[in-house]
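#struct-pred
JK: can someone run the complex with S-adenosylmethionine? inputs below
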Amino acid sequence: MAALVVRQKKNTMDEFQLLIDLHKGGMRQGPGGDAQTKLALELARIDRKAPLKVADIGCGTGASTLMLAKHLNAQITAVDFLQEFLDDLTSRAEQAGVADKISTLTCSMDDLPFANDELDVIWAEGAIYNIGFEKGVSEWRRFLKAGGVLVASEITWITDSRSSEIQEHWDAEYPEIDTASAKIKILEKHGYSPIGYFVLPEDCWVKEYYAPMQSRFEEFLSRHKNSEEAMAIVHAEQKEIDLYRRFKAHYSYGVYIATKI
Ligand SMILES: C[S@@+](CC[C@H](N)C(=O)[O-])C[C@H]1O[C@@H](n2cnc3c(N)ncnc32)[C@H](O)[C@@H]1O
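RT: done, structure tokens with the ligand placed:
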């Protein structure tokens, strides 16, 4: 749901509801994949048997939450400000037999109710950019125990230079987009020790996110009787997909893994 979030401030309420409607049927609302969630878990060196307290922030319909529940001995608070997504997550958790490990919290990520040093793990896939990477890592740090782990994926330049067309697009959508070295510096500046980093492969964008979304376009448009607003949303999503196809050599999501010092 990159498009939803980056355009959010410019959306009217109706457009926002339409975006929710398009995205709530999806397993994911942004690029990612179960294998990559597992890889991040390995790089985070989390003790899978220890009883852990985990927050999955901006969890959407819960693809990462379900993976964490399956692989950890944890109590997971799944946080999102959209109740519709959390309702989907609850049904999926029940179907997967992991509902007892997950509680949902409808809350904005800039007003989280956790206590200082409460959490062993903070997880945020494709979501921290809603408040900005630097603000997120600095504000959320106090919720982590010393030695606790932050795992956050963040849109990242994967080359040092690029055409002005894609530079200007992302500068307008998300001015904090930067290289991994710059993001790692931010983590260090805010009291984290980076212990892992990898880049999401193309499948995480195309197979896991864009293709399933495109397969929902037709029904979405017919549900909304091809309204101008619904068509505009599909058009904007398609534009984002086309940009990715043309410029994927230059950006992806980086997955950052860091411990609280
Ligand atoms: C790109 S989606 C990623 C969802 C999920 N983590 C995934 O990878 O499929 C971003 C999520 O952040 C949520 N979100 C956006 N702004 C938020 C805020 N201020 N507080 C809490 N959640 C927010 C959206 O509702 C959405 O579910």
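RT: quick notes.
The first helix runs from residue 2 to 7.
Residues 1-2, 5, 28-30, 32, 58-60, 63-64, 80-82, 85, 108-110, 125-127, 130 surround S-adenosylmethionine (CB under 6 Å).
JK: thanks, will look after standup
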